Amino acid sequence: MPEQILPDRLTIASIRAWKNARAPLVCLTAYTAPMAQILDPHCDILLVGDSIGMALYGMDNTLGVTLETMIAHGRAVMSKARTACVLIDMPYGTYEDTPQQAYESARRLLIETGCDGVKLEGGHEMAETIRYLAAKDIPVMAHIGLKPQSVVKEGGYKIKGKTGEEAEALMEDAKAVEAAGAFALLIEGTVEPVARAITQSVDIPTIGIGASPACDGQILVTEDMLGLITDHTPKFVKKYVNLAEEITKAVETYAADVRSRAFPDESHTYGSAKKAKAQ
Ligand code: KIV
């Protein structure tokens, strides 16, 4: 069998070097093989995010997502990603205790899925862990600003950087994770002036979600931008299509067809008696 020639995958080094170089990085979440196949040609980064808890599993937040879930979905995405760089979120409870715990979890994500790197939530408090992982050649994207894994502790999803104190703390976080060896920085739910100042102050690319156009790249939860999540749409989400509506129309038509026996017709039937009779 001839060897399959694949186009080049975007490497961690090329993402790291993206800063100021080209158009903003295009990033989306992906959890399944079919979605990865559709998104891959258009994206620089596919993130197997722990938002999977809400987007696919009906959870209230990301806290119940397990490492096993991330590994299973990471494998599915890796089976179809060809050129995008694939990152996987480290779920709550799998990396915060010690750098060694983080290493064991990150190692499993990389070895068992073949993904390119991991993302973890935290700023200066995770710097030692990021340094430890980077020294062991595990690429880490840090996630600061609004951190969904802290939602219960903080009593909700709160936009960050509104006070001088918060802005300063976020800048310190960004500098700490950069110095520790993070190759990129995701900034979530943060006011524009702070996201801009951070982006201008660090040499690693910043990826924003609800963090203004000032960032070096943008990410959205795919199910949000496709209009598949109907419960709540945050301000920062732009719905590019309303798939929930499209699916509803399709399913209504299917249900009517089944009930009226319009489906299946001969074209969907094996060894149709009707067809045999006509011949
Ligand atoms: O889990 C996730 O989808 C995220 C978003 C910020 C993109 O981390």
| CA distance, first residue to last residue | 43 Å
Which CATH-level-2 architecture of the largest domain?
Alpha-Beta Barrel
Q: Please bin the fraction of helical residues.
A: 25-40%
| Widest beta sheet: strand line-up | 1-2-3-4-5-6-7-8
Main beta sheet, described? Answer: 8 strands, parallel, barrel
What ligands can be seen in this structure? Answer: 3-methyl-2-oxobutanoic acid
Count of distinct strands: 8
**Overall tally of domains:** 2
Model regions low in confidence, pLDDT < 50 over at least 5 residues = none
Coarse morphology: elongated
Give me the Rg, rounded.
Answer: 22 Å
Mean pLDDT: 95
Number of helices: 12
- Helices and strands: which structural class? alpha/beta
Q: Please name the fourth-level CATH homologous superfamily of the largest domain.
A: Phosphoenolpyruvate-binding domains
Task: Tell me the layout of helices and strands.
Layout: H1 12-16, E1 25-29, H2 33-39, E2 45-48, H3 52-55, H4 67-78, E3 85-89, H5 99-113, E4 117-121, H6 127-135, E5 140-145, H7 151-154, H8 164-180, E6 184-188, H9 192-201, E7 206-209, E8 217-220, H10 222-225, H11 243-260, H12 273-278
This protein binds 3-methyl-2-oxobutanoic acid.
3-methyl-2-oxobutanoic acid (KIV) binds next to strand 6.
